[in-house]
Structure prediction request, 470 residues.
Amino acid sequence: MSRIVIVSNRTPAKGPAAGGLAVALKKVLAERQGFWFGWSGKLTDSPSPTAQIQDVDGLSVAQIDLTRDDHQAYYSGFANSILWPSFHLRLDLTTIESHWYEGYRRVNAQFAAALAKLLRPDDIIWVHDYHLIPLATELRRLGVRNRIGFYLHIPFPTPDALYAIPHHTDLMRDLSHYDLVGMQAKRDIAAFMEFAEHQAPPTFASSANHHVDFSRTEIVAFPIGSDPDAFASLSVSPAAQKMITRMRRSLGDQQLILGVDRLDYSKGLPQRVEAYEKFLAHNASFRRGVHFLQVAPPSRDTIKEYQATSETLDAVCGRVMGKFAEPDWQPLTYVKRAYGQPSLAGLYRLARVGLITPLRDGMNLVAHEYIGSQNPEDPGVLILSRFAGAAEIFPAALQVNPFDTDESAEAIRVALEMGLEERRARYEALMAAARKHNVGDWAEEFLAHLSRKPGDSAPQHDHIYLNSVA
Ligand code: F6P
Prediction:
């Protein structure tokens, strides 16, 4: 059986804190004798041409160091100040500096050069996320002929947002050098198809003869999930119970409304707090009977747009506190730190409402974890943004337009007043969908596709499958 090689910007760390994706991929690697390749997390003065291989809890991890300047251009610059905001349709938050693209390509070339030395001819290579779109091109340039797949963990942009990205045609050509490109949702495939069929219109700086040929690449929607049954077990573990006891002591009879997100502008946090503010304003009888907890660990905080989001959130939370808090009642708690999975599972289980309202998002694994952690006898209600890819698989959530804070405020009221029968019916449908899209099957399905030799028939599945889309 071929080895599997996973490539991503970050690599798994030692310890039990790994998320569902890392756990699923580690399992695949353990079964297929493979290794994980990525950045070491170290910034140095000169780039490392060769990877250092180490054992991380029984897993073989190969890592390279990056220079400070390259990392700044590749990660904070091109990946997170151009690709991330554009892919999330926030062109107003992009910063474009043309030299970042050179750094982005340089790092991808450095990854390829160090990785190529470790490859065997029949290894199957699985590249993850928007940091590494050019990796297949760079590997092919070095003569690598292995099967290479790519999975995009964020939404694919609409054509207009794509055209706003410098060198977008080159990036699309990079995608065409993969054998398989996996995306999260049907809408991502639709957006990709729109580009593939029409291609980029010419501008004064680029002519129209840059047609990208995708005829050798399969583009397939593989909606990623979490491990809902693992969260079901975790939510009744002693560590989760400890968190539940602690929270019950402080909440008393108040019902908990919970949000858990990286502190990222795509998550719609200020709008969410504003919706809660409207809910309190319109429903005075609920005051003192509810509490909103937002867990928001800081993220990418060297980037100014992230700092600005953090400041906006501080201000909105302060405003709501000033307007509604009383000496013996606080409407909300806002914690800017990360919690381990057992504590989160406890919070999810206790929360009567899971408030997940990103402005644009992919499959949002917090939604899956919230569902998995519910008490089947007395489940909470998931309020979910219709602009998360997860909305495609969770029609049983209360879906809202996160930009419409009146609608979200009303959804909070409906969720809090929802009777047990309806909550159970919705929970059962949500849990069935979360199980269907569990991360273990997702990884197996992607690899089954990628391992196919040309001419083999396609595996059976119910996802969108586009062969030869050019
Ligand atoms: O959702 C995309 C993603 O890159 C994830 O893969 C990652 O866990 C998360 O964002 C955090 O990103 P970063 O590595 O920039 O902290």
In short: Residues 460-470 have pLDDT under 50 and may be disordered. The longest helix spans residues 304-324.
